[in-house]
Amino acid sequence: MSKNKSTGSTFDSFLKEEGIEVTGTNRSIDQSKDVKNASDETDDLFHKELKKFLIPKLRSASYRWPARSEAIKRARKSRGLYGCEMCGCDMKNKEFICDHIEPVVPLTGWDGKDWTQYVTRMFCKSENFQIICKSCSTIKTDTEIQLRKMHRQRKKDEQKP
Q: How far is CA 29 from CA 8, 17, 25, 34, in A?
């Protein structure tokens, strides 16, 4: 930044033109706030990118989780035929979904920073898996999405003054 002889810098002169008084103390406090905000934004961006990278990898690994295979065996009625644990209909292989009874992402939301809870819910015991048909899965997923939206809205309403 080029120096301005009368005010010290072009930024200082801009602030004075806008009617903002600049002192050394105010300036250093404001700059430290800006640095902290920039650091927080960088951390948030890092966590978003980490989340985008890790979730598909964990999901892929969960398909080989032994407890998941146990749940599929539990739902097997006969060779190539499985029963939906919600509505009781019969399904062929590839027509069912191995669903987490307790959602991997809590209904109250997840900030993407505490991975322990996410991993624990993803790699759960076989009792926390259920084999359901695609229509039951759609209903369950839509319900969970609506509950998460309601929770987010309630959280926003509580933060309003």
A: 18, 21, 6, 9
The CA–CA distances, whole Å, from 151 to 113, 154, 158 equal 19, 5, 11
The whole-model pTM stands at 0.68
Look-up of token digits 């990278």: 53
**DSSP-H helix ranges across 24-122:** 24-62, 66-75, 115-122
Query: What pLDDT does 30 receive?
Result: 54
Structure-token match 């759609």, residue found: 138
Pick from 114, 136, 128: nearest CA to 65? 128
Could you tell me which of 67, 68, 88, 86 has the C-alpha nearest to residue 140? Answer: 86
Q: Which residue has the tokens 């309003």?
A: 160
Q: 60-110: per-residue pLDDT in tens?
A: 999 999 999 999 999 999 999 999 999 999 999 989 999 999 999 888 877
Relative orientation angle of helices 24-62 and 115-122, to the nearest 10 degrees: 10
DSSP state for residue 147 in the 8-state scheme: H
